[in-house]
Amino acid sequence: MAVSDYDADATELLETYDFLMKYIIIGEAGTGKTCLLHQFTHNSFKEHSQHTIGVEFSSRTVKLGEKRIKLQLWDTAGQERFRSVTRSYYRGAAGAILVYDITSRASFSNLSRWLEDARALASPHLVTVLVGNKSDREEDREVEWAEASRWAAEHDCHFLEASSLTGENVEAPFLLCARSILLAIESGTLDPEKAGSGVSYGDRALRRVNSSSRLSFGSLSGGRRKSSVKLRLPGTGLRCC
Amino acid sequence: MTSAVSPSAASSSSRLQAQGQNPISLRLYKVLGANFDDDATREALDTLAELYAPRPAEGRAKDGKQETEADVDGEDDRDVNGARPTGLVASAGAGGVAGDMAARARKNLRRDVESKLAESSKQFLKAFGEVDKQLDTLQEHIGLMRVRCDEAQSQLHETNEACKSLLDRAGSLREERQGIAVRQSIISAFLSRFTLSSSEKEAISSRDVPLGPTFFAAMDKAARIQADCRVLLTASLTLPAPSLGGGEDEDGEDRATKAGRDILAATAAQLEQTYDKIFRWCCFEFRQMGKDASLDVSPTMREAVKRLRERPELLMEALTYLSQTRQATLLSSFMDALTRGGPGGLPRPIELHAHDPLRYVGDMLAWVHQAIAAEHEFLESLFGIRNARRMVGAERTFGASEEESWIAELLDGAVRGLCGPLRVRVQQTVRSQESSITSYKIANLVQFYMVTMQRTIGREALLSKTLEELTELAYSVFYGAIEAQGRSLLHVQLDPDDTGVSPPLAIMDHAQVLREMMVVYESSLLGNEQEEELQAGFRDILDKMVDPALEMTLTQAEEKKKQRPVWDKAVFVLNTLAYLQSVLEPYAFTTEKRGVIQGLVDAKVLQLIEEHYQDLLEDAGVAEVAAACEARAQNVSGLVNGSISEGCGRGREDGTETRSIQGPLSHVPAGEPAALQAALRRFSEWLSGAEVVQSRRLGLLTVQSVATRVHQAALERVAETYERICEEVKKPENKYEAAATLLGSERPFGQVRLLWQIFGLEGRGR
């Protein structure tokens, strides 16, 4: 169910939305951040991708349960020389997609530095999803799934592996992140009304606020447990033997 | 009547039966055998009985009647018959009277019956008289009735006549009504097609009906009416209109066009109303939504904007409001981000980091960039366009369509307000920098954003221009800083007491700064620059940084040399130049400057070779002999060329006296065999020393390859000089006795080749 949800036609642009969320995509150079994003926004693999210069912007509206969420995605350059520029974009992000390359241990070992940076500069409730990219290159794997999963658990991140080449699991990190943020809003730890939280209400949600005194997240809470279990399945399925 | 006679006939026949077949008897029998017991006979007898029983008058009358009836049968039966009724009457009535009566009856029957008949006829007459009277009355009545009926009929006829025209009229009216009904349905169809219903009108004009599908439907209808009307009008102008009657043709056409024009006018007014309403709504919404942080566009809003595009002047005005509100909103949220930060102070306000200039400027510009991205999305959505397939980060093209140019304009307007505060802050930051490196980094950062913004909002936008200006300012501040640094470098004096020949500290500090700048520059490259672009981007900085360093090195070395002649200036200069080169070496964009320095180095190397050669000649003790030979060679060549040779170096100085003498070399003091012998011995000794392999002086050069090059070049020239000496000595006109012995007494025994070997230069020269 959950997986097929993600495959659903979420590429509906020009639509009103309930929430607007700002994400940053960070990680070492060459881990495939831009390709991951390209796969997510264009549903295709970006051939001959160059190093990103500074930051690039794109957006997409996704559906999560009954909620429409517009994601503002800031794709940052991984190269060290752009750090001073890209760090300025961490400000007020609600979610971070932290990307490493499963075929490069170097890209994995620097993760804590990236995470610390992001947590220090972005919103205090930053939701982070760790993504092991290039999962299609199993034969060149240098970082084991279990190890990355452990790291993610220790650092309070969500984790999954994806392939921006095949598109496998590409939507999941973005939706997982959105789900966590919605839950934070529901539980009251995050207030979209305040500037700088990285989340704001869209027209649809505002209308709903006006019509009923309280936002309802019934559908979301109901489906959550089931979905999050299933979310890990593609990964565990690969690992378990 | 036969039956009435037959009973008596039957009784007589039974009596006569025995007499056989006599016709009379047969007849009698037949008569006697007749049965009178039938109903008709009985009735007839009863009637007779009645006639005679109570009153004779009555009986006679009845008999008479009976008689007339019986007459028809014949005379024969009358007797028999007469006898029987008497018998019957006698048996029924009183004895004596009855017999009398019957006789009388038999006599008077006829008369009785006749009188009775007459009496009855009289009664009949009387009765009929009555009837006749009644009938007359009846006839009278009927006659009256007839008159009445005739009257009625004539009246009916008249009425009928009168009704006929009425009926005709009714018929025509009915037809007319039918026609009118048709026309009515046509007209109502026409009206429903060519006018707006009241609810539609209300949707268009009333303030109470909000903008929405109803409104847009009404508007669509109005627009369609207008279009249809236009089509019809043009059609009626170009084509002969199908008309109802020939005479009305022109008139009808006129009326049709008039109606068309009226409808057009009414619809146009209504359409204007709709645009007006949209305009008002948009103005209101724009002012409202401008204040929200959220930039969501409802479908109604998008539709409204799309429709309002038909009235560009209204749309422009509405967009002006939007632009104003967005500008104010963005400004206030920018100020919030600068001074107040996020909820609960997190993320921290940008100004908190004002002490870190790069972060401060970077955060501000990034904030602006992000605001622009959101704004741009909002505007795209407002105009209903979406470059969904635009490659991430690809340069936007503006002005391609009307919307794009609007978007560009609106973006410009929205971020216009940010320019002021941004400019003040960046200017302040730029001006307050002391470190030229930081200045350079800021300049680079601002330039980076300038390029980014130009791509995002176009070159013409105020923000782009502001950033351009700021970039210029940052660079000019930076250039000012490095120029000042260069000037101060020129004032640095070398320590006259320092005997060292390594690059001075001031130069090294300066180079360190340069090195950092190169790192910054390299990191700012996108990797796709042309060679020329690459060099140009850093040329100014190199000029401003390296030229003062070169100048300082040369002039200050000169100064120091004056104060301290023993100090090895040439090596110092070469070392410093080599150091500067090594600093520039790793970066491709410094090749030009490195070429310039290389030119200097080459010149200095030539100088050093010359110096070193002379030093070597001195050290080897052959300087004087060499000078003498040199002088002679120059003289010879001078004579040959017919001109005065100027010579060079020490050779000229030493040769001035000898030039006029022009005697044999052996007569020159330095060339006297004894002196030559001594010189050759010293040369031989020098050849065994370490100096041949490695010069102590050149060992101070930091770049060993240069040292080797200089040393070898000098050695080559020494070898050439030795060769020339040998040649001179061997010449007869120089009058050496036993020249071969003289040369062969000491190493390298006059063998030039051996000398080359000793110098380790066999591969080169001859």
Automatic annotation (TrEMBL), chain A:
Its main location: membrane. One of its GO terms (molecular function) is GTPase activity. It is found in: Membrane. Gene3D superfamilies: P-loop containing nucleotide triphosphate hydrolases. GO terms for cellular component: membrane. It comes from the Eukaryota. The keyword Thylakoid does not apply. Belongs to the small GTPase superfamily. Rab family. This is Ras-domain-containing protein. It comes from Trametes coccinea (strain BRFM310) (Pycnoporus coccineus).
Automatic annotation (TrEMBL), chain B:
Its main location: Golgi. It is a peripheral membrane protein. The keyword Iron does not apply. One of its GO terms (cellular component) is Golgi transport complex. Residues 57-68 have a biased composition (Basic and acidic residues). Residues 55-82, 647-666 are annotated as: Disordered. It comes from the Eukaryota. Pfam families: COG6_C, COG6_N. Residues 149-176 form a coiled coil. Residues 102-206 form the Conserved oligomeric complex COG6 N-terminal domain. Keywords: Coiled coil, Golgi apparatus, Membrane, Protein transport, Transport. Residues 69-78 have a biased composition (Acidic residues). It is found in: Golgi apparatus membrane. The keyword Membrane applies. Acts as component of the peripheral membrane COG complex that is involved in intra-Golgi protein trafficking. COG is located at the cis-Golgi, and regulates tethering of retrograde intra-Golgi vesicles and possibly a number of other membrane trafficking events. Acts as a component of the peripheral membrane COG complex that is involved in intra-Golgi protein trafficking. COG is located at the cis-Golgi, and regulates tethering of retrograde intra-Golgi vesicles and possibly a number of other membrane trafficking events. Belongs to the COG6 family. This is Conserved oligomeric Golgi complex subunit 6. The lineage of its organism: Eukaryota, Fungi, Dikarya, Basidiomycota, Agaricomycotina.
